[in-house]
Design a protein that fits this description.
The protein is mainly alpha-helical. The protein contains seven helices and no strands. The N and C termini lie far apart (50 Å).
Amino acid sequence: MSSAQPETPALAAATAMFVEILVVGIGFVASLAMLAAAAAGPQTTAKAAPVAGSTPATGAGLAAAYALGILVDRAADKALARVRRRLRQATFPSDSTYAQARLALTTVPSLVALADYARSRMRICRGWILNTALLTIAGDLLLLRYNVEHPIPLLALTTVLGLGVTAGFYFSWYTITATGYRKLAQQTATLAATTPLPPQQNSTPTTSGTVD
């Protein structure tokens, strides 16, 4: 009598996806909190701080982070769709050839795991392109709203640092995406070259066959 075992690869992929969405969502919730603090001002923010730090608020924040992470992930994917299609077409001439390559890769679990890891990094970078841009704006608004010493240098530092990190996430996403397509093409080409052809069962030519 055998007991059913959980599908480890599927479970690992689902867990990775959950973590990715949560990581992206936490950054978005943090930027919304900073924007709210900038809009409310120092006194209102100080009064709301004990409530925001409570356990129920933390749980609600994590739930909101996951839900909003999905929206940010989809928004970032939509915003970068044109660039992604251009990168894919540089390696795969059509969607069908790309789909066939993805299908062929599923026959090698080790390559699937590597591809999933690359896509995980790509999705996090993609979401944090929007997050860092929004965090930069929120940080600048906080510096303008609150009384801080030397606001101009801090504004310049926050803006330059934020734009630099945003550009870094975009460059990372671009590089990972382009490398992923290139590796997929190379791996599937290697698989096609090393996979033996099935033996012919009948060498007698027939009139109804097709000629390659």
